[in-house]
């Protein structure tokens, strides 16, 4: 999973052709027919440009094959932790949706279909986000074009999860304020649509539109600020701390900022080049992102419990 949109520089045609199949230096096989893993300096120029120079070894050769890239799930390389640290949570969140819905139906007698939809939006979008991330790290050794496409899907998955997260948060904060809730849902829906368009529209992928893509992505993430501010103004800090579970929000932000900081500094691999080839700053960021998602879901369940049992909406 990528932490922020980044510029992809198209390689020269000769470099692209060279990177479509197995590299000459990787023609030999490792154990059980696996491709021999490469060092950073043996990878194509386009791959080196987009990746971490402090990770020295453990690179899969350029496969030019989806099947070959999928087979890399079964042996250790420097993307293994990045793949499984989001592939496993993707499955857990997908299956966990059923568990959450059963939990709500069993604990609360007046649970509604809207409650189910709100929680499903969080669980499903989390699963989509982690799935796209795992696929990106699986196929980044396929070719330049596929690496670029999967990176866009990775960023799209992050945007989708942000939307699902805010949908559930707004639902609980504005428990009785249906009109306000619908306004914010519409707002995040617009931002979500713009995120999808800017990530998948071919004409918007050039360097010319990089600032626009970044702005839309940041605006989508920051759209959570407006309902939080209005919630604080309308309900006060004490009630908002119960509706929004401030301590879980702080813990979630702490996880995300810590992961982003590690990735930005390329720590610890930049301090010990070659020492963290199999588990690097990107891997730690993945794990902290999953922790943030779990913490947020726990907070939402506690906030829902408070709203359901303690808040009575007027009939008007």
UniProtKB/TrEMBL annotation:
Signal peptide: none annotated. It is a multi-pass membrane protein. Pfam families: HlyIII (PF03006). Residues 1-32 are annotated as: Disordered. One of its GO terms (molecular function) is signaling receptor activity. Keywords: Membrane, Metal-binding, Transmembrane, Transmembrane helix, Zinc. The chain crosses the membrane at residues 83-104, 116-136, 156-176, 183-202, 214-232, 244-264, 284-301. It is found in: Membrane. One of its GO terms (biological process) is intracellular zinc ion homeostasis. Belongs to the ADIPOR family. GO terms for cellular component: membrane. This is Hemolysin-III related-domain-containing protein. Its main location: membrane. Zn(2+) binds at residues 137, 282, 286. The keyword Transmembrane helix applies.
